[in-house]
Backbone:
């Protein structure tokens, strides 16, 4: 009885929306008119919908790049901040500032910086003799540019997770490696990296889920453009459900998207669990 209020809240806030989403996904659910049962037709439509297929590819590309870059840079930053140097606390505070701001505010600032004529980034490029870039206004550069924004904002999160793992490591292996004449790279490769690998996997899972769900940054900066060059599944399902009012097809995309997140998350957690018992 004591747990009943919490159970009711969980069912009402979490379970019921998912059940209702599944219900809508098997109906031709429009804002107005009848909602006939169509079974798996909405899911079958995704198999022949080229726009969805390209959005799926863009989502995987954006997610992979938005995980690899922050994890690599975050591990490097954690190793740097684990050493002793002057003003380390101040430098670490500056480093984590990007993740403190809201994504919408950050996106608006970056949008102004990306402007082809008035943006500060092209001005800085001109100072070193590099030709200006179209940034998010060119289909060939929009995804790498958005990945750059994600990397700038979320590398500090990876750094904090991995830095916590490095702080918990024993000092005996490093002392023994120093006596044996091991170089800093050898100590990182054979001691630090294997011991903090579980923390890296956790950071990768968090980044992967967050990158897969990325919506606000992409929507504010590009609206999925130019054209559909940066249209991920999140942007497409939003447009399908709330611009084209096809809630049934949009709900089917949500279900597929949820399954994708679960599969990738379970794979990464399996890797972490396997590493823990080796």
Residues:
């Amino acid at each position: 009885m004591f747990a009943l209020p919490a159970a009711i809240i969980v069912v009402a806030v979490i379970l019921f929306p998912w059940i209702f989403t599944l219900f809508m996904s098997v109906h031709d659910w429009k804002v107005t008119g009848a909602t006939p049962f169509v079974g798996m037709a909405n899911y079958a439509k995704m198999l022949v919908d080229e726009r969805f297929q390209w959005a799926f590819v863009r989502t995987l590309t954006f997610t992979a790049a938005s995980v690899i870059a922050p994890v690599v840079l975050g591990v490097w930053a954690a190793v740097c901040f684990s050493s002793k140097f002057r003003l380390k606390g101040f430098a670490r505070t500056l480093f984590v500032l990007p993740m403190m701001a809201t994504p919408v505010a950050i996106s608006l600032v970056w949008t102004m910086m990306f402007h082809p004529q008035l943006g500060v980034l092209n001005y800085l490029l001109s100072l070193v003799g590099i030709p200006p870039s179209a940034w998010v206004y060119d289909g060939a550069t929009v995804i790498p540019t958005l990945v750059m924004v994600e990397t700038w904002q979320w590398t500090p999160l990876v750094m904090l997770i991995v830095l916590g793992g490095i702080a918990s490591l024993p000092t005996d292996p490093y002392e023994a490696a120093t006596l044996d004449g091991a170089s800093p790279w050898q100590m990182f490769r054979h001691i630090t990296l294997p011991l903090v690998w579980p923390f890296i996997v956790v950071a990768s899972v968090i980044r992967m889920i967050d990158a897969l769900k990325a919506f606000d940054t992409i929507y504010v900066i590009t609206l999925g453009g130019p054209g559909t060059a940066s249209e991920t599944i999140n942007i497409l399902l939003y447009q399908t459900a709330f611009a084209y009012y096809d809630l049934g097809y949009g709900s089917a995309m949500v279900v597929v998207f949820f399954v994708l997140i679960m599969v990738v998350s379970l794979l990464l957690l399996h890797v972490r669990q396997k590493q823990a018992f080796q």
